[in-house]
Amino acid sequence: MDFDIEYDFDEAEPDDEREPDAGPTADERRARSFPRFGPGRRVGRKFADTWWGNAWIESMERTALDPEQLKKGRRYAFAGQVGSITVSPGRISAGVHDGDQYTPHDTIVRVGTLAAAEWDRLLDRVAAKAGHIAALLDRDMPHDLVQTADDAGVRLLPGYGDLDPECDCPSWDHPCRHAAALAYQAAWLLDRDPFVLLLMRGRGEAELMADLRRRNARRSVAADATDEAAGTPAEQAYAAPPAALPASPGPVTGEPLALAPLLAGHEAPGIDAEALGVLAADAAHRARDLLAVTGSGPLVPEPDAWCDAVRLAARMPRSAATRRLGEASGRVADLPRAVRAWEYAGAAGVDVVDAVFGPPKELVARATEALREAGGVDGAAPEVRNWRNRWTVGRDAQVRYGRDGRWYPFRRRAGQWWPAGPPGPDPADALLDLIEE
Q1: What is the DSSP string of 47-66?
Q2: Whole-number average pLDDT of the chain
């Protein structure tokens, strides 16, 4: 079952004692507090809903010494036994209850922070790409942003040894069940806001955005000085922001089809008021994204015609307009499946519906073995057939490997393979999603 998670951001109470007249430290001023998750709350069908939330969980699970503590931690997380979570540079903390205990255990997961030089390299790269800033403002962390960090020699997502759990319980496990529960629930926070991860790594959202604005201002001054004599190429002039940007308009609100009633008394042959309303709303959203970008880097590339048709169809109610989109693209029969793929994973999901390519042999072997183990019932391994980037398990289940490195579940319906859920970082998880339906 899916739940909507709502949380408020409040200044955190300091964890350690100091003199009464001492003010909060810089890290405490950056801290954000999140109300506890109630029992049974989760996002999506997997524990984490986003690929970066699952990457966080993988990092924690790879360093675990006792799988049994992880199982208990997951149960604690689902049962709502974790109190309000405080996130600050280098750490997350919360009180975690045992089922039969009133006083919570003080639990901390320490996270490796980035050095100042690493932040400089990372922010220089981010400021140069308008699409990265737009994605963060939309609370998204695309794979190419992480790749940009890797290119700068910065590991943005925690790796082996970056997470260090602490707890005042008597357990010697690493992590104990209390720290595991805290780390699992932290993935839910990351799902909704990648700035939480950046805060763990050492910088808060306001601080980051101010730094990016300063870098873009310096880039603009340097470009003006260089181009004063030589002039500015048209491509750069088009991509650069105006001298004084207006205030960000913020999220577009209101009913997307609000234009349709205004056109009701002005019908014209060949004009569909409903479709025109969707197109107007789409243009407004895209204009908002461009205005919200403070960088002077290149604009995000336009999607190809097919992907753009799928994107528009996904935003429209089922109508004659969506049928015309399918007819214009020449793929009427493929449009419903592509729209379902878009709803699960955006452009990357649409690509997986058609993509056929050969992954590395080592990956094929590991995935085949993992799927056999995951699909086994009563000790009997299922039939797993591999063709290129597709693995068919039994008769009606299939797992596909995408160009983005994620695994996508598909199910056979009326002789066709349909997307059956959001992608994940592991082929076995994708198969288990199909089995559990």
Answers
A1: SSSSHHHHHHHHHHHHT-S-
A2: 76
Residue 185 C-alpha from the chain's centroid: 15
Weakest mean pLDDT among 107-116, 124-133, 372-381? 372-381
CA distances for 358 relative to 365, 400, 410, angstroms? 12, 11, 18
Tell me the per-residue pLDDT of 239-249, one tens digit each, with 9 for 90 and over.
666 555 555 55
Do 273 and 259 touch, CB atoms closer than 8 A? yes
Is the distance from CB of 220 to CB of 131 less than 8 angstroms?
A: no
Q: What is the largest CA-CA distance in the chain?
A: 77
Contacts of 314 (CB under 8 A, 6+ apart): 339, 342, 343
Structure-block tokens of residue 320? 């004659």
Kindly report the backbone phi and psi dihedral angles of residue 10, in degrees, each rounded to the nearest multiple of 5, phi listed first: -125, 155
- How far apart (Å, rounded) are the C-alpha atoms in residues 22 and 30? 17
Residue 111: both structure tokens together: 């996270």
Closest by Cα among 4, 71, 72 to 37: 4
Determine the average pLDDT of the residues in 70-81: 90
DSSP assignment of 91-106, as one string? EEEEEE--TT-SSPEE
- Say if CB 133 and CB 212 are below 8 A apart: yes
Q: Which residue matches tokens 């200044």?
A: 11
